[in-house]
Amino acid sequence: MDASSLRCEFPVLQRLAYLNAGTDGPLPASAVRAATEELRREAQEGRAQAHFERRSELSTALRAAYAVTLGCEAVDLALTTSTSDGIAQVLSGLELSPGDEIVTSDEEHPGLLGALAAARDLRGASVRMVALSEVAEAVGSRTRLIACSHVGWMSGSLAPAELAEVDVPVLLDGAQGVGAIGVDVDALGCDAYAGAGQKWLCGPDGTGMLYIAPELLERLSVSRRGYPNLADPNEGLQAQLHEDARRLDSLLLSAEAVACALAAVGVLQAAGWEAVHRRASTLATHLAELLTERGRAVAPRGDTTLVSFASADPETERARLADAGVILRNIPGRGWLRASVGAWNDEDDLERLLEVLSP
């Protein structure tokens, strides 16, 4: 991979040490051009039959590109608007009942916690939290689902490999996984994997994906039905859902958003996924080492792209870093700052962070 050429794809890096892909990734110039071209087309040609055919073609291409990032078949992948969207589809579709238990970890993102709270409040299911490293062994007789992060958003720790062996469905929040590290849903043994298009895949807000194993798909009810996820919408009340994962598609993704996401994925795919993942994780490990040398305690982490480290006043220090052109985030409720290190970053970005940090 030509790291310098990849870096040149992202205009924001000309000004900033951008270390915030765990929130939103940097947007490639080619993705902006792709979205702009779609909007230009819509403005000049209107939005009639050709527009909808174009949107369908783009969606088919994006579904295939996203499937590559998860190591799954395109027929097993739904297009969503976010990680949270896919998570909610699974939890609502399971139709859990009072007495059913969901096991999760104590370091989950609000995008998962909100859906878990809905299952508790609306369905009567119970939610049990344990350490992320203990979720596989926490399965009990009432457990109907494990729902947790693949990569913990707070620290960058990894879900235990033992999840592949449990006897209940596993739903992984892959917001910090897909695009950042190699993902193979078969090897993970998960039944559902929800991911984001706007984070490590550098696409626009409002894009995402959901892998769903065929066995679990058969069990899910689909209350949200509309034109995109019906096999033949013109059949009216008799219209049936698509037989594959398209039945879980979000009801509207704009042509410009899909084109933008597709172009962004294309930039990374052209660089080579294995090389992208290796460079990002290597840089992140190096940053963790440098921070430790400077006396900053680094949170326990796996071989991932997130590096969380101690800060006496995270919000104030984050703002000061931003003023100096270094963009990262703080973790609410914890004394941590979090750097998200991508393949588009370089040693200068890391040094710029270290130079601005307080001793």
Topology:
Elements lengths: L2 H6 L8 E2 L10 H17 L3 H22 L6 E4 L2 H11 L7 E5 L4 H14 L2 E5 L12 E7 L20 E4 L11 H4 L3 E5 L11 E5 L1 H4 L37 H17 L1 H21 L12 E5 L3 H10 L2 E2 L1 E3 L4 E5 L6 H10 L3
Parallel strand pairs: 1-10, 3-4, 3-5, 5-6, 6-7
Antiparallel strand pairs: 2-8, 7-8, 9-12, 11-12
Helix pairs in contact: 2-8, 3-8, 4-5
Share in helix: 25-40%
Uncertain runs with pLDDT below 50, 5 residues or more? none
Number of helices: 11
Q: How is the largest sheet built, in terms of strand order? A: 2-8-7-6-5-3-4
The amount of beta strand, in percent, is 5-15%
Report the sheet with the most strands, covering strand number, pairing sense and barrel closure: 7 strands, mixed
Q: What is the end-to-end distance?
A: 35 Å
Tell me, rounded to a whole number, the average pLDDT. 97
Describe this structure in words.
This protein is of the alpha/beta class. The chain is built from eleven helices and twelve strands. A seven-stranded mixed beta sheet has the order 2-8-7-6-5-3-4, sandwiched between helices. The protein has a three-stranded antiparallel beta sheet with strand order 9-12-11, with helices on one face. A two-stranded parallel sheet has the order 1-10. β11 and β12 form a beta hairpin. α2 runs antiparallel to α8 and α3 runs parallel beside α8. It is globular and about 65 Å long. It starts with a helix and ends with a helix. The model has no long low-confidence stretch (mean pLDDT 97).
List keywords for this structure.
alpha/beta
